């Protein structure tokens, strides 16, 4: 019977003990935790047969520096995201995403064996749809409005509000395709879409709120 070694990766601040206790005790694989950012190198050369990333690649390695420059056309004053921002802000996000994906593909290409496979699950914006029209992006506008209200009430300063930008970018499918093809380390075998937002029941809304807090709390916590 073949043996499998599974590596779970997350930031060093992740509670790996909780992860390990949640795994089935009679699991048919060996489990290991690997702390570190997926934006960097994680494994030795040709040490992986399969890579799976789920809802992670939309997180940028850093906020585009243009967003914090008062002299830049992409200065994002009064907003925390590009959803309702000028095109220059969205372009700055897109450029940073392209850099991050290129680096991610380069590192994973080194870590995977020659015939290795990679499955990436990530939120995207349908081709031809403005980013400002999606409910996913609207959530970030609501979050920004909450921070703006806190600034008006004196709970945070205006400077804190202006320097808070969420490092999250939702790419277009064609954008991701172009980045993979330009990189040249991988070929796309299949690209499929799902519609998780088709569910609108109360439990799903609660789950969305929990996921938003889990992903953003560390970023906006003051």
Automatic annotation (TrEMBL):
Gene Ontology molecular functions: metal ion binding; methyltransferase activity
Keyword hit for Transferase: yes
Keyword Hydrolase applies: no
Superkingdom of source: Eukaryota
Keywords assigned by UniProt, alphabetized: Magnesium, Metal-binding, Methyltransferase, Transferase
Pfam families linked: Methyltransf_7 (PF03492)
Gene3D superfamilies listed in its UniProt record: Methyltransferase, alpha-helical capping domain, Vaccinia Virus protein VP39
InterPro entries: MeTrfase_7, MeTrfase_capping, SAM-dependent_MTases_sf
Any one GO BP annotation for this protein: methylation
PANTHER family with a match to the protein in the record: S-ADENOSYL-L-METHIONINE:CARBOXYL METHYLTRANSFERASE FAMILY PROTEIN
Protein name, entry field: S-adenosylmethionine-dependent methyltransferase
Organism: Quercus rubra (Northern red oak)
Lineage, highest ranks first: Eukaryota, Viridiplantae, Streptophyta, Embryophyta, Tracheophyta
